[in-house]
Design the sequence.
């Protein structure tokens, strides 16, 4: 059985080695910092100190991330994600994409191989210190597109992993010949140039898809590479102008949103840095509430163009039903994810107050970020909330049947159904390890009606629902599936 080298312990070892070289004053590393230090008006010694602290924070963060031995590990710490991306890219070439199939013992990143390690570590730090790619503004001419009144739309969340699961899903999408396909974000490990090229090579419509067939949202992993390959390579390949857009016909509008450029934000505002929900949760998982982490301190007014875009498009077509698409989650059944998404959900409520249709303006919201597939209870949410982040990353089988509660007893978002299907483990031969199956959603628009099929990577059905019917109207359950035990409460 091939071994996945990027386990949690592998990533910690990588970061500890990077920290050791910083502390020891590795000449190759310090030399690489001279230009950055000069441009920032600081000294190499000061930058060495701040980066050492940063790496230590990353180590603590990674050590605290939930992980089951045998799963693919994809850290949510930007520096760790960059480390994984650089190591994978160095072991993979266009001619020999084998890095993720090699035992970690033979991947040449040990301390005894400075010829490999020196440039890899330098590249990690240099990339981390780059400025973000420029945020792009959408225009009606290129980002407000007409789609057929009857069409099928494949929605893939957290799919950019270049693994067997992603390739199986791409084959399932192709077999159904959808009108278009939309990726809800996350190219692993860090949306690097190499990983973006692999994403395009695996895309169901090919690396140079026909115009109007392919769209991609921004994800937190794309921003680990500061969005540079996402804005500079992926969007041009798709003929996509900006990281937000609207697809419309006579009955519907689908709004793709960027909630990763400023994490969990539509308009560029950021949460207040005061004691409370977000501070408590982020502190508990070792996340520093600043800069390149899960949230930012500095607002970005450029995203006001996205906010105004949504307001204008929804207001201009009050009779149409609206569906939101994003990477980050506005709701969750899990406490840390629920509280992380609270700011995004609050922003949605603010947006809803500014448009004439009010609380009826948005019918549904599809999102990823969590590597799960969950249909939330429609009677408990402001919109039909659908998590489809199980696009490619093997993860522990779903076992939760209700919404988690915080220490005050307040509940998270209750699920109606969770995809608890499993698939044979093709990464590590660990007895008893059950990895959740990956999948995607196929949205069918037919005049004013809409149905959604949630399809597994083996072609089996999780469920088919009538999105425009009564709350949680399931038209067909896949074999072995049904509502969670708490759905009737």
Sequence:
């Amino acid at each position: 059985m091939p071994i996945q080298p990027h386990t949690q312990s592998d990533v910690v070892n990588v970061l500890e080695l990077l920290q050791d070289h910083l502390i020891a004053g590795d000449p190759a590393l310090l030399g690489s910092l001279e230009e950055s230090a000069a441009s920032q008006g600081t000294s190499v010694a000061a930058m060495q100190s701040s980066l050492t602290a940063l790496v230590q924070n990353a180590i603590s963060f990674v050590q605290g991330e939930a992980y089951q031995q045998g799963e693919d590990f994809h850290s949510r710490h930007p520096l760790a994600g960059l480390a994984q991306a650089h190591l994978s890219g160095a072991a993979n070439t266009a001619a020999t994409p084998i890095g993720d199939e090699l035992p970690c013992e033979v991947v040449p990143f040990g301390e005894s191989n400075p010829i490999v390690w020196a440039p890899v570590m330098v590249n990690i730090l240099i990339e981390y210190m780059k400025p973000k790619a420029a945020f792009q503004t959408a225009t009606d001419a290129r980002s407000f597109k007409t789609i057929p009144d009857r069409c099928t739309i494949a929605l893939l969340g957290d799919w950019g992993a270049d693994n067997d699961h992603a390739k199986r899903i791409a084959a399932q999408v192709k077999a159904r010949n959808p009108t278009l396909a939309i990726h809800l974000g996350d190219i692993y490990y860090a949306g690097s140039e190499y990983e973006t090229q692999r994403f395009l090579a695996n895309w169901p419509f090919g690396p140079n898809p026909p115009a109007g067939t392919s769209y991609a949202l921004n994800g937190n992993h794309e921003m680990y590479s500061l969005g540079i390959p996402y804005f500079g390579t992926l969007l041009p390949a798709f003929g996509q102008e900006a990281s937000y857009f609207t697809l419309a016909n006579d009955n519907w509008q689908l709004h793709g949103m960027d909630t990763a450029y400023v994490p969990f934000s539509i308009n560029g505002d950021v949460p207040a840095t005061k004691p409370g929900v977000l501070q408590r949760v982020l502190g508990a998982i070792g996340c520093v509430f600043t800069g390149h982490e899960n949230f930012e301190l500095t607002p970005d007014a450029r995203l006001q163009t996205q906010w105004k875009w949504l307001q204008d498009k929804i207001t201009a077509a009050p009779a149409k039903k609206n569906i939101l698409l994003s990477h980050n989650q506005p709701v969750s059944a899990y406490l840390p994810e629920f509280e992380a998404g609270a700011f995004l959900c609050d922003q949605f409520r603010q947006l809803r107050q500014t448009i004439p249709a009010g609380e009826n303006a948005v019918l549904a919201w599809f999102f990823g970020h969590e590597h799960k597939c969950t249909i939330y209870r429609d009677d408990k949410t402001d919109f039909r909330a659908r998590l489809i982040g199980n696009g490619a990353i093997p993860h522990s089988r779903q076992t939760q049947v209700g919404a988690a509660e915080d220490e005050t007893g307040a509940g998270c978002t209750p699920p109606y159904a969770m995809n608890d299907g499993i698939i044979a483990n093709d990464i590590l031969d660990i007895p008893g390890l059950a990895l959740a199956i990956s999948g995607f959603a196929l949205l069918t628009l037919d005049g004013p009606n809409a149905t959604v099929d949630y399809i597994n990577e083996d072609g089996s059905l999780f469920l088919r629902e009538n999105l425009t019917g009564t709350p949680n109207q399931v038209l067909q359950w896949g074999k072995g599936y049904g509502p969670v035990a708490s759905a009737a409460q």
